[in-house]
Amino acid sequence: MASEPKFEPRPIDRDAKVYVAGHRGLVGSAIWRTLEGQGFTNLIGRTSGELDLRDRDATFDFFREVQPDHVVLAAAKVGGILANDTYPVDFLSDNLRVQVNVMDAALEQRVQRLLFLGSSCIYPRDAAQPIHEDSLLTGHLEPTNDAYAIAKIAGILGVQSVRRQYGLPWISAMPTNLYGPGDNFSPRGSHVLPALIRRYDDAVASGAETVTNWGSGSPRRELLHVDDMASACLYLLENFDGPQQVNVGTGRDSTIREIAELVAEAVGYEGRTEWDTSKPDGTPQKLLDVTKLTSAGWTASISLRDGLRSTVDWYRSHRDELRD
Fold first, then answer.
1. Is 269 a catalytic residue?
2. Whole-model pTM?
3. What is the pLDDT of residues 176-222, one digit of tens each?
4. What is the largest CA-CA distance in the chain?
5. Where residue 25 sits, what CATH number does that domain have?
6. Would 319 be classed as within a structural domain?
7. Which domain holds residue 178?
8. Can you tell me whether residue 223 is helix, strand or coil?
9. Burial group, residue 8, by CB count within 10 angstroms (0-12, 13-18, 19+)
């Protein structure tokens, strides 16, 4: 058994090789932007077409060739309630393979610092609010995304196992619901906020008098702009160490109904909103306790209203390029 990992908080060398797995995704692209903005000059990324992280041999060959100094594991198959509920095998299998392959390859190269990114869906459906890190594995998961959650829980255990067995100071961060530039606005695969932006923006374009949203509108969601998430990732890499996952969020939440109203305002929709209560609400509330993160010295800085406005602007400028 290895001794406790040794980590000295310090700025990362801006010339260090940093591999961002999933650098084209919502989180990965934000991390890439943030690192570039902070002066990093040796960032490494591969598209899924260039490197399929589900392919173990290809992943190991890549790590042997590149030998990164630091790894941010943001690559994942992600989706909203419908996608998770419809394709649980894909969400479980793909994410497990990506995580195991990347972590095993990074371990072979003895990468000193790896940050694994998960999701707040790892916590029990009925966890006490706000959700503390200690709530992990204390109750039943939300059934509509349990396969994805189990994969992410396995990733946390992977990081903890490397710390215990090999003494490497790897860490995990669990973001709340994210949004921002680069999000998935697909009608079948998106999360609640991009789905709302697309729905209301389409209504503005078509002149629709009514928009119908899933569920009752009563569930509460905490939303974090992805650029804030990226800022938190760099801060954790440079300042934090510990075996337990770190919640990353704002510490504040809103009802889906309130969020829908803000989206309607941001896109300029003035029609009527109706709610289809025959559709599932998902988890009633999911607010993270971010005491560990704030105690470490980081807090979110982008307001929901400002973040929504900039996300709508990004969506409208990229709408023709986005997948359906």
1. no
2. 0.92
3. 999 999 888 877 667 789 989 999 999 999 999 999 998 999 999 99
4. 65
5. 3.40.50.720
6. no
7. 18-182+224-251+287-302
8. strand
9. exposed
